[in-house]
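To fix ideas, we reproduce below one chain and its tokenised fold.
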Amino acid sequence: MRSTKYPDSKQEEFLESQMRFRTVFDLSTLGNKIILPGLKIIQVNPAMVALLGYDTKEDLLGTEILNYSPADHHQHWQTLQRHLWEDSSPSFSLETILIKKDSSLIWVNVTSILFPESGRHLGYTIVEDITEKHALRLHKEEFISIDSHELKTPITSLKAVLQLLNKMVRKETIINEKISTLANEAQLYTAKLIHLVEDLLNTSKYERGELHLQKIIFPLSHVIDGCCNHVKLDRKHYVSHSGDLNVKVYADRHKIDQILVNLINNAVKYAPDSEEIIISLERLENSTKISVIDRGQGIPPKDVAHLFDRYYQVEKGEKENSGLGLGLYISSEIIKKHGDEIGVKSIIGKGSTFWFTLPDK
């Protein structure tokens, strides 16, 4: 890297900083490289040379990273290029494939940040080999897909039987209260099981980019009114509303219902002592912000940043976790597909607010 001129009083500090960076860069066990806006490689560390199966860094210097990328993965690097240099994003991450010297392929996780140097912006990139992790994930997804389809048929049949049982129970004038309660609970738990299976079935589709939306304009009351029936059944919580329920949005109605059900289920699950769950609607300039609020114990700060990661679960103390850690991940993917935002604000001892936005049209 070229040196930058500083006042004499700063020169020593700058040189020390440069030496520390060089030490970290060279000794890192992960592949490190520095690229120009045109994706030309101007510096690599020994780990990057070894990752691609070459002998010396001179084999890589002056080449373009696209030389080591299959043609159908060039778009990944072009997306990184656009986000960093055109959109001025501070960082960008992706998963892609690289070609080694022996023509074998490896899956890698790439994280890049921009940094200024001599009046221009360079990309500092960390490359991690995730080939084994990627293979394990594919095996797991294949198992989940097969197993989920096998589960779905008997669950659907069970749901139909329980619905019939509940109809018969309601028609009887004299019925044991315990039987009635058990019938309601059985239907409630069946609904939860169906949601788990649907999460399993949908996860692989989302990751492959096969999430398709059927957008229509509809009032939010159409999903809010029907998304909380299972909460009424447990008789421990109630849902209140604030804002104009008749405000209209342009979105996939079924998938927005799925998000609301998931957020409400999480409030019931992780804030069991919060009897009231609030659905709040707030009009923004060209969109509506929907929030699900509980008054529970809140979420530890260490967990908040990972809540929308796939398979991530917040610990519940001595209580056993249920679920797969997919609900918030799927909700996040749905909102991203809509081109909008999703987030959470949580304060220990006061509760949590999960929110997302939807466009007017």
About this structure: The first helix runs from residue 8 to 27.
